[in-house]
Amino acid sequence: MMTFSESQPGKRAFQGFSLIELMIALLLGSLITLAAVQLFSTNNQAFQLQRGLTDVQEQGRFGLNFVSRQMRMMGYEDPDLGLADTAGLVLNDFIDGAVTYPASAEGGTGNPGNDRLTFSRHGDIGDSDCEGDVLAIPKLVVSTYWVQGDELFCMGNVDAATTGISVISGVDSFQVLAGIDSSPNGVPAATLYKKIDSVLATDQIVTMRLGLVLQATQNIPTPAASKDILILDRQLSSGGGGPVEEPAVRRVFVTTVRIRNVAWGDI
To answer: Which residues form the signal peptide (predicted)?
Structure first.
């Protein structure tokens, strides 16, 4: 500690900081450091949350777009291919060789409470199914979608040895409704929506409504409590061991797909 003596009249000696002044300085420094750490932690949590939400948005958009692209061709039939099979929404199990493709079902196989969606179309040489497998001969192309674990799977029928591929992850719920035109007037428009199990072979399906509930899979801050979620015709309860019981950041995605290949004479 430096000490200056009074060598001139009227000058006061300076003997450095007192202990109290040093303690105050240390306290202020600690408070500033704590504030900086808190600010960094808050910004980091905000960044992680934003990244998680972005990932959920991308997964949701990709998943719905993936299924929608395939579904727009549902029911396509080409008489020049010489196929006897009728294309459309598959309401009964479809057998192709040694493989059985389950029919569309409300709360179908896989995670309970999730729907299974199966549909078909005519495919020519060079076409591909939902897995990307290419046809070597004209064939009825069947695609089936279901939830297994927390992933949305699809399985095509071009490769008989396949067990399906994962489309997206973080899926809490997958729901489907069929839009039926029950008022023939020459204009395709859904007048009511039915659950998959309620669709009849004679129903004129003009739209399909798809719903997904996704949760962020990254390690991000979660809400203090979960909330009930309504997705299409299904209420997901936050209690009783339901799919949204555990608190998490979730988003709901819904889209309506217009079916291009309809029986125009019956619309």
So the answer is: none
